[in-house]
Write a structure and sequence with these properties.
Length: 224
């Protein structure tokens, strides 16, 4: 009579199965949060509803941004400047208008760009500065899904090597907090920021900066 094999799965199988279940659960949970729409508002709500992710659009007031071009020229000439969100958004819109149209996949202008660029379109970025924190927001579209998403990152600037870079303290894609997924967060951040490279003249001036500080509702760029 043939003996029955009563030996259960080994520790490796048990561990692998548990790990796979956790990874699958995290992936499914993150996907559902990404697909959950955010509430887009023009002003900070008086009371935020628990469990709801909000996106407060940056201001693009032409009156408050009227000095943007003059400050840009002063910055290129090596002067320290202080700019508000209206001026930043004015300059960003002008730079995009002078270059590729917003929402154009990077692969369309650069054949060597990653192939996933063909599936992603990024709209006009929105900058908001409040309480010593800078928010970068971008509306995203995908050729694979009809739904649009909002990416938003909140943080400040740190020196990395010889230049200053934006370092988010929190990031959301849809309603998913990306800072809880460090590997995904880094990829998404670099992928989004690569859509909006600095113009060559601004990049050269930016490399000379002595300090970059988000102070109150302004961004201070200090030259040597």
């Amino acid at each position: 009579m043939k003996k029955l094999n009563l030996q259960g799965p080994g520790w490796f199988q048990v561990t692998f199965g548990a790990l796979f279940s956790v990874i699958l659960g995290v992936a499914l949970g993150a996907g559902l949060l990404v697909l959950r729409p955010v509430v887009v508002v023009k002003q900070e709500p008086k009371e935020r509803e628990k469990g709801i992710v909000y996106f407060v659009d940056g201001s693009r007031d032409s009156g408050r941004g009227r000095e943007a071009l003059a400050k840009r020229q002063a910055f290129l000439a090596g002067e320290s400047i202080t700019v508000n969100e209206d001026e930043i958004n004015t300059l960003v819109a002008a730079a995009i208008k002078a270059g590729a149209a917003p929402g154009t996949p990077a692969a369309a202008a650069n054949p060597s760009a990653p192939s996933d660029a063909a599936y992603l379109s990024a709209g006009l970025p929105s900058v908001r500065i409040r309480g010593g924190s800078l928010q970068l927001g971008v509306r995203l579209g995908s050729s694979l899904l009809a739904q649009k998403f909002v990416f938003q990152a909140h943080g400040g600037f740190v020196r990395r090597g010889d230049t200053f870079v934006f370092e988010p303290k929190s990031m959301y894609l849809g309603s998913c907090p990306l800072e809880r997924l460090p590997f995904v967060a880094g990829y998404v951040r670099e992928r989004i920021l690569s859509e909006y490279p600095l113009p060559a003249d601004m990049k050269a001036a930016w490399a000379k900066l002595k300090d970059v500080v988000v102070e109150g509702n302004t961004l201070k760029l200090t030259m040597p």
